[in-house]
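ugh ok fine here u go
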Amino acid sequence: MTHANGTYAAASRAAVFEVRDLHVAVDGREILGGVDLVVRAGEVHALMGRNGSGKSTLAYAVTGHPRYQVTRGQVLLNGEDLLAMKPDERAKAGLFLAFQNPIAVPGVATGNFLRAAMKAVRGTEPINAVQFRKELSERMQHLKMDPAFATRSLNDGFSGGEKKLTEMLQLAMLKPRLAILDEPDSGLDIDAVRTVSDGINTVHAQQSEMGILLITHYQRILNYVRPDTVHVMAQGQIIESGGPALVQQLEEEGYDPILARHGIVSTEEVSADGR
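structure:
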């Protein structure tokens, strides 16, 4: 495997995240039909595909959404069996999901929410108030966020870009081992995409051992967040993987040639939950 800067990524690097022959059903209908994926420490993987191909289903199944039933397979985080854990235990183990559509929580200040989230993830480890405020201020400064965000209600009245940037702030504060970013570019204009991309790159530079699985439909965010590996998903399986050149190929040719090579009819896919 080759990084975007051309250096060789040693196969000996620890696997942070492993998905082995994962099958997932929603309301009795199989959506994922055998997904295999390995993300090593520090790597950025992009997961691309049309609507309904199963990308978000993978994210929600891995994080423990009750509607997504794993019928077969394994998911490991740092060698531990994620599927044996409750959703909160998965977060404590180092799994993070940035939502495609973050919800607003009126009346709960963003800073207070982050402190509560950190306490929940760390368990009994105490959080010093002065130290927390200092770290929050530094992280917001690195992300070029207005300090006033800390006192505003979480996502309440935020623009799309502000919501996604707040997700990056959560990522920076919680310091997971693996971050799943579910369409961080969804609904954003090009300027907001660049701002959120800068946020992702900033957090990843500070947490160089963190693995990232970035789910997206489009090439544009991958102009700024350079992936080590790109995967194409269709009909609940990863049908093709490659380096950054695969992104450009998809931009120029679309999905049709890849789907055709794998004998998949070129129609918009629709899964049981539209994901």
